[in-house]
Amino acid sequence: MYEILKIRAFTESIREYTFSAPLAARRAEPGQFIILRVDEYGERVPFTICGADKAAGTVRVLVQTVGATTMKLAACKEGGCVRDIAGPLGRPTDLSEYGKILLIAGGIGAAVILPQAEKLAREGRCADTIIGARSAELLVYESDIREFSQNLHTVTDDGSAGDKGFVTEKLKVLLDGGKKYDAVFAVGPLMMMKAVAAVTKEYGLKTVVSMNSLMVDGTGMCGCCRLTVGGKTKYACVDGPEFDGHEVDFDEAAVRARIYGEQEKSHVCRLKNAH
């Protein structure tokens, strides 16, 4: 069992959980994830590690309540426990070959960007960052990311915080304004990453994306998280979760992400009716 030491609520549906997980914390690196199971009968769900304290033996993950498992987790309280945490899994992010980096996050993708920004800052290579959300209340980790960024640009769809618009529009403004980057690291909804990759391709700018694919075991055995990258089959759990954004088949990934939509809705309905 793994104790929930702290819950930080950003909104009614977005919370950060701090777990006591010494073995996972000891080896965790930016870009990696855990697979969590709330109870004995729960499904296994991946969550990116947005922070780890090796000395304290803790890991932090950001969770948006959207389905059955996240509803179960949202019902948990500080001091409670979850059944399993496996990790860290996936390949750590490697941006070592790039000098000037632009980080881009959409929505809760900020949870993936935060440890990247912190690591780059520790290495003396502070990145520029763009974070976006539908509205101000859905922005997460803004002040944390600002601390570790050379320049932080905030955008919201409705203009309630920062500039009004999309992250791709701010990206174009920066590039057309003469900003030079060696690489872009983008995380967020699939279609956002697709749009970012389309823009950077025009500029011949290396782009890395983090793929949040459906997973079951996280070891490459089930094949659930498979993607097509550069015309080849890859597995987000063991080959990724990060890939060349110009080679990912985003349309195929979007179809696969929706494949169990009806079953998930049915499960959520049963859970709500049970309460």
Account of the protein in words:
28% of the residues lie in helices and 32% in strands. It has 275 residues and is α/β, with parallel strands linked by helices. It contains eight helices and 16 strands. The strands form three sheets. The chain has a seven-stranded antiparallel β-sheet with strand order 6-1-2-5-4-3-7. Helix 3 runs parallel beside helix 4, helix 5 runs parallel beside helix 6 and helix 6 packs antiparallel against helix 7. It folds into two domains: 88 residues, Elongation Factor Tu (Ef-tu), domain 3, CATH 2.40.30.10; 157 residues, Nucleotide-binding domain of ferredoxin-NADP reductase (FNR) module (Rossmann fold). The mean pLDDT is 92. The two termini are 24 Å apart.
Comma- or semicolon-separated keywords:
seven-stranded antiparallel β-sheet, Elongation Factor Tu (Ef-tu), domain 3, 275 residues, Rossmann fold, alpha/beta, 8 helices
Structural class by helix and strand composition: alpha/beta
Q: Can you identify the CATH class of the largest domain?
A: Alpha Beta
Portion of residues in helices? 25-40%
Multimeric status of the protein = single chain
The shape, in one word, is globular
Order of helices and strands: EEHEEEHEEEHEHEEHEHEEEEHH
- Named at the architecture level, the CATH assignment of the largest domain is 3-Layer(aba) Sandwich
Spans of 5+ residues with little confidence (pLDDT < 50)?
none
Q: Which homologous superfamily in CATH is the superfamily of the largest domain?
A: Nucleotide-binding domain of ferredoxin-NADP reductase (FNR) module
Radius of gyration: 18 Å
Write down the overall mean pLDDT.
92
The major β-sheet equals: 7 strands, antiparallel
Any idea of the CATH topology of the largest domain?
Rossmann fold
Number of strands: 16
How many independent structural domains?
2
Strand content: 25-35%
Physical arrangement of strands within the biggest beta sheet: 6-1-2-5-4-3-7
N-to-C terminal Cα separation, in Å? 24 Å
Tally of separate helices: 8
